[in-house]
Amino acid sequence: MNIFWLVLGGAFTGAVGPGVSVLYATYGEVITERAGRINLGIEGSMLMGACFGFLTAVETGNVVVAILAGGLAGSLLSGIHAYLVVFRDTNQLATGLAVTLFGAGVTAYAGRSFVGSSIEGLNPVAIPLFSNLPVVGRALFQQDLLAYAAYALGPLLWAFLHYTKWGLSLRAVGESTNVAFAAGRNPARWQVAAIMAGGLLAGLGGAQLSLALTHSWTEGMTAGRGFIAVALVIFGMWSPLRAMIGALLFGGAIGLQLQLQSIGAPISPFILDMFPYIITLAVLTVWTGAALRAMPEGLKGVLKGTV
Amino acid sequence: MQFPAALRRAQSSAINLTAPPIARSVAGIALALVSFGAFLLVIGRNPLSAYATLFTNTLASPSGLSEVAVFMIPFVLTGLAAAVPARVGLINVGGEGQLYLGAWAATGIALFSGIGTPWLMLPLMVLAGFAGGAAWAGIAILLRRWRNVNEVICTLLLNFVAILFVNIFVFGPWKNTGGYGYPYTADFSPAAILPALGDFRLHWGLVLPLLGVVVCYVVINHTRWGYNMRAVGGNVEAARRRGIGVGKYLLLAMLAGGGLAGIAGMSEVAGIQHHLRPGISSEFGYLGFLASWLAGHNPLALLGTAFLLAAIFVAGDLLQISAGLPSAAIFILIGLVLFMVLGLKSRGRAQP
């Protein structure tokens, strides 16, 4: 029983770190989908952010520039998706996968001589007083700067979507392009902006992954985190606040996996590696009913009555 | 739902598409080759000589053609895995995982059935591969029917689980004790190996996608089942009112698709690897999905698009050797081809 609580506590403490990269990608996909578009290319955008963030850190040694480079790279890649689905009317799911494959190719090429490089990267900064709190102190307030920014970003995005004119326009476009157009908005422009902002956030998430979590670059290192983010958006019912809970669940799955590994639990490491995917699928399965009702109208054509 | 006409005009892009689809696809491929040529130029390679080498080593040489056919096998089969469910309106992006499960199931038969004759062993392995892939796809369709979970996200996530599932076995109970520590199973007995076809790596597994295409084409276009499938894919509500068992068709189409991808896995282990190991597929499932999409989910056209992607894929291996590019860099060219062809194929009319 003792070890049970130890593992669970450890999983919680270790949940935030791995959850942050996915949280950024989830924020990004929330913005994209609130404008009525779905982007499976954020897996590729995360890879771009991880790769170009890391490369820039190696070359310049400046972590702020590296973070910005990661976000920019993610955004540029999603620009391809935006052009194709908004202006060329291509299938969103197929295009997103093609974008992800393209991103995998670009980063495999660009990062090939940086595998094994080391960087200072982003390191945890303890917040005085708060980091001394029991349990949550170490879990929440001994993180890197991108993690702290992610805490703030959730409520900010929520406020942006619900209490600003721009947020209203974005959501209107996602509900009905016709109505938004009649109300004087240019739906195409909003959707392109939303998709590229989504790519930017996914790129930041990728940068957090390589700069803060692993301090390294390897080919394909995101390992489906972008796709997990797409699932967490649904679990989070298109709300940036609930996305934070989803990302914490995902991070908790990774934390649990690491904890079980460190105490030498007699479980195949590959079964432990499955946790994040299976737990994501499980929470998605449990919450479908409510998610269906919360779905932006504009997505219903693509997802056809499912979530 | 469409944009109002005024908006459509405002958005119609500079590319005015009145050319027939084939011409647009060819133009798309040409544009992609030009863009990738520009990339080669930027990184200091001569694109013309690179393309010339690629052409002579893929399509203009027997060994190159054999390699292209080798990769067509998984591309066509995982392409069908997307094309068949697409007929009923389902999107199966899980070809990769279904391929792994098929390979796993076929390996189980190869290692433990003890059958000595290929005439019984190979058909059983094909069946096992089909069952393995179908079971994996079955999870997605059941979750969809039971809980309305979207099959796109479900099949995508299950791909990662499937790869780990295979790892459990090849690093664990199935690991060959005499394999110098590599995570491989024991080599298959001769009865479990698809014999070579010609002098190179091509093997008799080539029959499987060809048979698959013919069966899918005939069933979809010339049988009552196919007619009903298309009815379900066209309008679920109308199909239901006409008394078609919609649920049954959704289930069967997804299982058949998963099974076909599973056969691709069987063909990889029985025809190429001759044992099971991690990484038997380099994104074959995703490439098959995209090949099917380029082909408009038409099984006959899929042969063409799978050939195209396979040729690029083989060219990628050559680029790796001759130009020192990492093998994944070929996804740059594949991505460009997909962007250009998908972009030029569509009517370019924005829809919400």
Description:
The longest helix of chain A has 27 residues. Chain A has one domain: Orthogonal Bundle (ABC transporter involved in vitamin B12 uptake, BtuC). The model of chain A has no long low-confidence stretch (mean pLDDT 88). Chain A is mainly alpha-helical and 307 residues long. Chain A has a two-stranded antiparallel sheet. Chain B starts with a helix and ends in a 7-residue tail after the last helix. About 2% of the residues of chain B have low confidence.
Helix content of chain A: over 70%
Largest chain interface and its two residue counts? A-B, 63 and 62 residues
Name the helicity range of chain B.
Answer: over 70%
The gyration radius over C-alpha positions of chain A equals: 19 Å
Mean pLDDT of chain B: 87
Q: In percent, how much strand structure appears in the residues of chain A?
A: under 5%
Largest sheet of chain B: none
Overall 3D shape of chain A: globular
At the third CATH level, what is the topology name of chain B?
Answer: ABC transporter involved in vitamin B12 uptake, BtuC
Number of domains of chain B: 1
Largest sheet of chain A: 2 strands, antiparallel
Roughly how many Å apart are the termini of chain B? 7 Å
> What's the gyration radius of chain B in Å?
21 Å
Number of helices of chain A: 15
CATH topology of chain A: ABC transporter involved in vitamin B12 uptake, BtuC
Strand order in space, largest sheet of chain A: 1-2
Low-confidence stretches of chain A: none
Topology record:
The complex is a heterodimer of chains A (307) and B (352).
Chain A: H1 2-13, H2 16-34, H3 42-60, H4 63-87, H5 92-110, E1 125-126, H6 136-140, E2 142-143, H7 145-163, H8 165-175, H9 177-182, H10 187-213, H11 225-235, H12 240-262, H13 269-286, H14 288-294, H15 300-303
Chain B: H1 5-11, H2 21-42, H3 47-58, H4 62-87, H5 95-112, H6 118-147, H7 151-171, H8 207-222, H9 224-234, H10 236-241, H11 246-273, H12 284-294, H13 299-323, H14 330-345
Helix pairs in contact in B: 2-14, 3-13, 4-8, 4-11, 4-12, 4-13, 5-6, 5-7, 5-11, 5-12, 6-7, 6-11, 8-9, 8-13, 9-11, 12-13, 13-14
